[in-house]
Every structure is written in C-alpha cells, then in structure tokens.
Structure to design on (407 residues):
C-alpha cells in the first residue's frame, strides 16, 4: 500500500527535480550572459574617472607593510600589458598560485588593480579570473 | 628588461655623471639602453647630450618626459634615438623650474598616483620595444618622485660619498625607504673614494683619519640593517672630472676604465 502511494510522489519529485535542474541550467546561462555583458562594459570603459586617484608610491609601501610580499605581485601586474591570471603571476614570481591569488584579490579589493571573470571559450561554461593594472585617464 | 635607478640621499654626489656614462657605455657594449632624466627638480641630462655633437640632437626638438607624465606626449614621442647605436634618451623640461610653470602646475594637479601609473606605462612601452636596460637618473632624497622611481625599479644603485652627512643620510634612506621595497635589489656605489696612496699625500693627519673613518662608516651602515646591500663598485676620485661623457670621448681615461668595469659588473648581475 505504501509502495503504491509512494510511486506517484516519487514521480512528482523526480519531475520537480528535473524542472529544477532545467531552471538551474537556465540561471547559470543567464549568470554567464550577465557576466559577459558586465565584462564587455568594463572593457569598453575600463579607465578611472578623471577625479579618482590611482594609488601612489606611499599607498604601495603601506600595503606592503600590511601584507609583506605583496609588492612583488603588484609589480608583476604593473609590468604586464594584458590581463593575466594568478597562475601566470605565480609562474613569474615563483610563488604558489594560492598565495598570488590571495594577494591579487587583496590588491583588487583595495583598488590597486582591476579584476574580472572571463569565459575560457564560447562553447565552454568554464570561467577564469584575470587581473590587470588600472589605466589612467589623460 | 632591467630597470636600474641611480639614487642618493643628497644631491651633487655624481648620480647624473655616473648614470649618463653608464648608459652610454652599456650601449657601446651592444645593449639597447634608454636613459631617463627623472630628476624633475633639477634636470641636467639635456646639457650633457646636446653639447655632444655625436648624438646629433637638437636642443629645441624634444618632447620632455614631464609632458608625457601630464598626458601630453606618448612614450614613443619622448624617447629620442641618437646617432650612437642602441642609445636612446628621455629628457625632462627645465620649464618646470621656471616661475608660473604650466607643466609644474599640471603635474601637481595630476596627483601623486597618476605619475606612478604613467611611469609604469612608460616601462611597459620600453618592455615592448625590447630595451635591455632602462636607466633612471632619480631625484635625490625621499620625495614622492624619487619614491616613484624606486618603486618601479628592479635594481637600485645607491650612490654615496665618504662624507659624514651622506653616511647618516644613507642610514635614514635604508631604514625609512629601501627596507620597504620588497623584491628590489640594492647595490651601493661609493663615489669619489681616495685611495690609500692619495690619503698618504694628505699632510693633515686629522683629514686622513676622518676620511678613513668615513669609509668604515659606509661599510658599517650598509652592514647594520636587514637588507643585503653589497658594495658593487668604488669609484676613485679622479681630479678634474667634469660633466662630460668620458666613455664616448676619452678612452683611455681612468674614469672611462672605471665605468667600463662597473658596466661589466652591472651586466653580470
């Protein structure tokens, strides 16, 4: 008796699960599209507003005092023309990817560099986080 | 590319003479070199290079580095090729020192961080042009501009003469400035050193003792801190050395010989 009553419930639950998975896939697609659009806008207008001020040498020295070793990460990003990942930075500095990732995120949070998420290819959903120096408006 | 800054606590210690001669000699050794006059308060590179006909540079035909820093010129516009193969120069503007200077006023308005950002932009451009050495003649002491130059450099040549005030200053810049620059290599360059032979010719025993004490003072100042600062070279005091590019015009010459030795060390670092 129990089995008989459970059968429709299970079917219903499976249907709900299936629908939820579909919704999840659609949400992921929307999220990626939104991220893609945000990145496109950021790329179009990456420069700082004329009234904002990029970090000075003293700011850099202060942050180095708070996070000893972060200066090396900062300099590596500043000397690269393109967006680069934490893995690229770690290959340059010879330090672990995890450490560079922490330093990069700290620098990005404090306005020393910019950060964005990019799709690895048009077909794949996988994304990567990349970083770049802050450009200055003339 | 190696970015090498020539810095000192005080002005007038021979930074420009050493940096100009080093840059030219590196170019003569076949290295692609860009020499930047970043002593914005007292730029003097222009007088060195325009007086040498071999460079064939017109004194009135420069876009100054200060123009680039305020966003009025591109890196390619401020880098001047010369007739000497591999040698490029970037000059700063004397106008910045004049009364009611527009450049100075714009430079101030641009904010401290913007100058540093422009310096990094310049370095990225030089990297793309495959320069092997970027030599920066810094402003002395600890100012925003000298800090900018130190922050962007890979190697810093600290020029010190065996004079008590400079030794005290050396201790100060090490503790207050250099020690905060992680991932930068520091090398001490002693300038205008008297040899034992020179000292023996001094009739005044007090002067002799002070000179010897000062040499020891530099060594102990370099030793008594957390940084590793080796003495890369000691330039002997050569009488009558003036503001000239000796490596270009005077060979053999004792100063030329010393610069050649120094450059060999710099290349091998």
């Amino acid at each position: 008796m129990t089995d008989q009553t459970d059968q429709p419930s299970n079917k219903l639950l499976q249907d709900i699960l299936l629908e939820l998975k579909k919704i999840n896939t659609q949400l992921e697609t929307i999220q990626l599209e939104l991220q893609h659009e945000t990145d496109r806008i950021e790329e179009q207008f990456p420069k700082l507003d004329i009234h904002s001020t990029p970090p000075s040498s003293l700011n850099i020295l202060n942050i180095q005092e708070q996070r000893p070793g972060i200066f090396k990460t900062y300099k590596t990003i500043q000397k690269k023309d393109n967006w680069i990942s934490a893995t690229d930075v770690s290959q340059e500095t010879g330090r672990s990817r995890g450490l560079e990732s922490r330093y990069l995120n700290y620098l990005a949070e404090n306005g020393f560099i910019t950060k964005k998420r990019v799709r690895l290819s048009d077909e794949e959903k996988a994304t990567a986080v990349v970083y770049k120096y802050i450009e200055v408006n003339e | 590319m190696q970015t090498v800054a020539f810095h000192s606590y005080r002005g007038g210690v021979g930074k420009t003479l050493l940096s100009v001669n080093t840059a030219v000699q590196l170019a003569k050794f076949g290295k692609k070199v860009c020499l930047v006059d970043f002593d914005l308060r007292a730029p003097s590179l222009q007088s060195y290079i325009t007086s040498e006909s071999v460079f064939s540079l017109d004194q009135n035909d420069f876009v100054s580095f200060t123009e680039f820093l305020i966003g009025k010129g591109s890196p390619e516009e401020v880098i001047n090729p010369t007739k000497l193969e591999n040698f490029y120069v970037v000059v700063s503007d004397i106008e910045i020192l004049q009364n009611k200077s527009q450049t100075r006023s714009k430079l101030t308005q641009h904010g401290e961080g913007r100058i540093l950002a422009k310096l990094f932009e310049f370095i990225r451009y030089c990297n793309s042009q495959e320069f092997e050495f970027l030599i920066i003649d810094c402003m002395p002491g600890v100012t925003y501009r000298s800090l900018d130059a130190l922050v962007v450099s890979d190697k810093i040549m600290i020029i010190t003469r065996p004079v008590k005030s400079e030794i005290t200053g050396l201790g100060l810049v090490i503790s207050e400035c250099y020690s905060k620059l992680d991932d930068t290599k520091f090398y001490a360059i002693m300038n205008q050193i008297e040899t034992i032979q020179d000292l023996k010719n001094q009739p005044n025993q007090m002067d002799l003792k002070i000179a010897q004490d000062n040499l020891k003072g530099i060594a102990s100042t370099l030793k008594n801190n957390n940084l590793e600062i080796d003495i890369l070279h000691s330039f002997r005091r050569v009488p009558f050395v003036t503001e000239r590019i000796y490596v270009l015009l005077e060979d053999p010459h004792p100063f030329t010989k010393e610069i050649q030795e120094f450059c060999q060390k710099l290349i091998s670092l």
